[in-house]
Amino acid sequence: MKIVKINSLGCPSCIIMNKVFNKIKEKYTFELEELDYDFDEIDEYNPGNILPIYIFFKDNKEVN
User: Fold this and answer.
1) Which partner from 30, 35, 42, 63 sits 20 to 30 angstroms from 57, CA to CA?
2) How far apart (Å, rounded) are the C-alpha atoms in residues 63 and 16?
C-alpha cells in the first residue's frame, strides 16, 4: 500500500489530520509520499483549496 498525502503547512485541517495520521503511521506499515504546498501553489491543482488530500494506491493502481 502506498499513500500520497498532499497538504499545506498553514492549513488548519492539515495540522489536525497530521496528528491523527502520525498515530496511524505508528500502527500500520505502508509507503508514504508527502507533498507540502503553499496555498498559492495549490490553487492550480486544487481550486477549492480542499486539504488535506490522501490518495491510496495498491499494486500501483489508485484505489481510493
Assistant:
1) 42
2) 24
